[in-house]
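User: quick one, sequence for these tokens?
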């Protein structure tokens, strides 16, 4: 009999015993044992009130933490953990795609599971991630959305590409243009993308959607399923009029389709600090909007290296690790993470 007990206890290692004995655990223990990301642990602990400060150390109250996981269901809490950010501005060439790619990869580098969704029939994000001929990709966002429209089985796993730099990608190509036209006559046309995103939410910490330069049906779909919208604004052109139109569309979506949508922030891009008018425009955006919507403290500087990455098919972190735009995208990533 004693032999049996010995055999049993032999199979438990020291770490298990340590964990079982603890009422308070560290971040690393929580990440290991619950198989959650750093961000997910933070959010669950924050929402459940499980944080416990001991001298200068932050610990987590296990009972409260586990109670929250139980009450929110196994997948329920995971869905809550995921943040869906749409990158939108109907003005073309303001660095939406550059921002989507480098924020997405930045978040993945910080240990988050990230899915990038290309919502532009030009397939710019797909190209920027190294897939130079998007029109040759067979299963894309258009395929998935048309399957949802036709109420067929959705081939999500065939569409998701696991990219080298640690992010997943749902690619797009010209087929999305045809789908957008068909969408206009479909039932629930504004929430097709939401149905898709809801089905993958529990798999990711962040889903970043790169919108096309339009306020068409696909952009409305992106806003209808996002938790927040990040608006890149190019600092070398007078952006105020275009922004008004975008704000109105966001308000309409908030009213009719997606009450929880918030504005993550306006991001000033391609800022040439040597030029006075760029400074003036940055200040104008801050003066006009900062009392209504957040303006990111981080500004993305104009950089030839940043312009080159579109052709290279890599992130800025790989292409120009020490560059100023790279540093700015790193700070932007931190700012986004710090907002929870
Ligand atoms: N910080 C930067 N400095 C200089 N050039 C940049 C910077 N960021 C992006 N660019 C360049 O500006 C152009 C537009 O960028 P990008 O494609 O990201 O914008 P976009 O808003 O997605 O465009 P579209 O509206 O066509 O989708 C690209 O050629 C890109 O390489
Ligand atoms: Mg783009």
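Assistant:
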């Amino acid at each position: 009999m004693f032999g049996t007990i010995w055999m049993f206890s032999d199979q438990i290692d020291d770490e298990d015993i340590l964990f079982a004995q603890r009422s308070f655990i560290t971040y690393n223990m929580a990440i290991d044992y619950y198989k959650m990301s750093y961000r997910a642990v933070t959010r669950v602990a924050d929402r459940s009130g499980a944080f416990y400060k001991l001298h200068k150390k932050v610990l987590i109250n296990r009972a409260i933490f586990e109670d929250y996981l139980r009450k929110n269901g196994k997948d329920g809490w995971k869905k809550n953990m995921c943040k869906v950010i749409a990158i939108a501005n109907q003005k073309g060439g303001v660095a939406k795609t550059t921002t989507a790619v480098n924020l997405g990869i930045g978040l993945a580098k910080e240990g988050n599971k990230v899915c990038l969704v290309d919502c532009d029939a030009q397939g710019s994000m797909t190209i920027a991630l190294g897939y130079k001929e998007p029109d040759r990709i067979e299963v894309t966002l258009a395929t998935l959305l048309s399957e949802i429209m036709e109420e067929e089985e959705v081939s999500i796993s065939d569409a998701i590409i696991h990219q080298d730099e640690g992010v997943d990608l749902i690619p797009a190509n010209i087929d999305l243009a045809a789908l957008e036209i068909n969408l206009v006559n479909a039932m629930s046309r504004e929430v097709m993308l939401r149905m898709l995103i809801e089905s993958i939410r529990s798999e990711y910490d962040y889903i970043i959607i790169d919108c096309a330069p339009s306020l068409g049906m696909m952009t409305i779909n992106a806003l209808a399923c996002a938790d927040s919208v990040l608006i890149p604004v190019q600092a070398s052109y007078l952006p105020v009029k275009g922004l008004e139109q975008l704000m109105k569309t966001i308000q309409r979506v908030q009213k009719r389709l997606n009450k929880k949508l918030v504005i993550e922030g306006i991001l000033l891009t391609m800022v040439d600090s040597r030029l006075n008018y760029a400074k003036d425009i940055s200040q104008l955006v801050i003066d006009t909007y900062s009392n209504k919507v957040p303006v990111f403290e981080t500004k993305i500087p104009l950089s030839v290296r940043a312009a080159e990455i579109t052709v290279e098919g890599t992130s800025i972190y790989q292409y120009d690790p020490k560059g100023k735009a790279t540093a700015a995208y790193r700070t932007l990533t931190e700012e986004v993470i710090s907002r929870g």
